[in-house]
Amino acid sequence: MKIWIGEEEAFESIKNQQAILFDVRSVMDNKEATLNGFKEIIQDSVPILDYKYLYGTIHSNHTNPVVSGRHPLPDLNQLYAKLIHHTMNSHGETKDIIIIDHQNGFNASRLVFLCKLLNLNSQIIDGGYENITLFNKVPYELDDKETFKIKDLDDKNKNFNQKYIAFFDEIKSIIENKKDNKILIDARAYQRYIGEIEPIDSIKGHIPTAINIPYNTLFINGYIKDKTSLRNIFKNVLTKECIVYCGSGMSATPLFCALLSLDEKVKVYAGSYSEWIEKNNNVEVGDFNE
Q1: Last residue of a domain, one of 81, 107, 139
Q2: DSSP 8-state class, residue 226
Q3: Domain range for 95
Q4: What is the CATH number of the domain that holds 240?
């Protein structure tokens, strides 16, 4: 499955009106910095605010109640309505979704994951915003008060594709029943995985049995590594069903996209480590890879 595409391919698709570009650059958990980052955008692109469309918060009306954790799923109805508003014409024909993010970012892959839940295909411009040369960048005034609705929309918060998402009970079952065909992968930095440090969550360590593949090992100079290199990174998990997680379900998504690009079975544990320790304080420290 093709996830990352080159700038030239994206440019041609957008120029020929076959695709719409969605801009997901942000500073996570910093609304002011995110808004300031959209003072300049690629011409005719559509900003996607992370705190409104990519994740929910405990005290927000942009949250899907099916998972908890530090960054729950967003309101999928709002996200779907925004995407369809910009990609579907009056004849019901839709344009492709192309996403731009900061280089090495995980908001683009988060949106790919959410699009999979909504049965929408999407792709990411490899190299990120910093390496763009073909597109024009223009000043922009952002309106974060926008709302979109679709008449007679079935409830996407209840009716979404569960093929690509894992929940707490499934993770608990994998650990308790030691299912060899399923493997948990922790995408956080190695020091957090082994429990040496924990700058955010209240308990150090990782979910039992998980191995560690930090998400930033997938990139080189801001670009996704080639498939041969990715297969080498994932060599011990290929052909298994992988469930990836991180602290809150954001930085696990580059692993999700990389495994999809290799045509492997993969899910995101959306609640991730922050939900796990809310519901179960059974964690491990040290290196389970060894």
Answers
A1: 139
A2: P
A3: 4-139
A4: 3.40.250.10
